[in-house]
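Input:
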Amino acid sequence: MRNPLSETIVQIEPSGIRKFFDIVSEMKDAISLGVGEPDFDTPWHVREEGIYSLEKGRTHYSANAGLRELRSEICSYLYRRCGLTYQPDSEILVTVGGSEAIDIALRAMLDPGDEVLIPQPCFVSYVPCTILAGGRPVTVELEEKDQFKLTPEKLLEKITGRSKILIMPFPNNPTGAVMRREELERIAQIVVEKDLFVISDEIYCELTFGDERHVSIASLPGMKERTVLINGFSKSYAMTGWRLGYAAAPKQILEQMLKIHQFAIMCAPTTSQYAAVAALRDGDADVEMMRESYDQRRRFVLHAFQEMGLECFEPEGAFYAFPSIRRFGMSSEAFANRFLQEERVAVVPGSAFGACGDGYLRVSYAYSLKQLKEALGRMAKFTERLDKEMAGG
Amino acid sequence: MREKILAILEKNARIDLKDLAVLLGESEAAVANAIADMEQEHIICGYHTLINWDNTSQEKVMALIEVKVTPQRGMGFDKIAERIYQYNEVNAVYLMSGAYDFTVFIEGKTMKEVALFVSSKLSTLDSVLSTATHFVLKKYKDHGTALVEEVHDERMLVTP
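Output:
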């Protein structure tokens, strides 16, 4: 029998998170700081709208690009929050999570050999989706000394004649890094000069802490026409299981994305789309409540790290902290495995988000205070033990 | 800071002062002072425990009484309310808009005890015109907390 598999797909490494998940799920009594989703349930008025749509028998396909009503709510949201003006009929595409939008944006824009600049540590799907789209991933290693922000120097270093797309994953999973307006302006300038396009993954945009709220790179001068803005409902409205996201992009790009979406997906789940309309229309207060709650827990986790002497730069977005474990002289994977075996707590090794994430852990604080206290208490015990071992050996 | 302290305490009155200060990014002293001030100003009126008595062996009966009154000269609603809320049996008294004047929550050991209280103590007050008693059969949610649901973390342990 011939080999049934594609060489390209076989070459792609499975997600490091998956590997870790398999180990954790063997363990019945483990607790976790490892999830990448909100601890809130979807607000009831949003769920209720989904239920109502089912009761009404709205169980059919929607337009390929998504419900017209939802697309115009998305436009008014993007205007309200980011000052961006998009046309609901030609510049918005409702997708199956932000993940689908990432995939089809890359597929719509890449030819074989085109390079995609990917700042790491970052979400796990940009590299494999680039490869599947025939592109060449070029990683840009971000550093703690820059608060894991993308700097002009780092970007310029990696730009070649084949560079076409820059991925902008901020607020960042796993580091919690945020790019503020001035920092984005410096990047935008290079993007325009070098004639690049940007895929800006802003799924965590509502979880930006501090006085200054999220700024979309698409809203900077000259950037809207070269940006595919990706967002969704998973993190802002605690709707991960509904699988609903969207892309906002210039018509020229969006048309081609729509083509792929039309053939591969048809349309995003209708129930989720009706629920999402309610989320955008009446969900601002929910978002605000959740943001405040994450912000409080962010402070709590950082304080706990400080008390156990674990270095951690201050994350300003998402719901992750990214402490350094370098002083223990072990890899993140080794740390995470021992921590799991000895204290029964799962954290995700930083290396799952790119090689430069080694030496760090992704700690999610989307947990109740009680859960955080228990898990961080065990972490303090564990790091104390490691320190003793090092002093003794 | 006051509103944030209240929002947290309303959900969890037993939180450590230290944790509260960390969550809010304030010093312990500042939070302690703010709490003391709010106690002084009767913004914080107590730190009670939410109990689902149905899950205990103790019998408790709760009733909501609609009360109509005639306010009399020199004795407005506040005075009448005071005559009502001074009783230990009375859990809560609210002045209402609409068809009747006060909602009175009464707690007793048996239905008979509650009914007796209404007929002998409440109805006989000079200003009270009429009462209508409704017994609570089951509490589903109280103080923003669902009493019947069990809370599970449905999430997988590790996700991207």
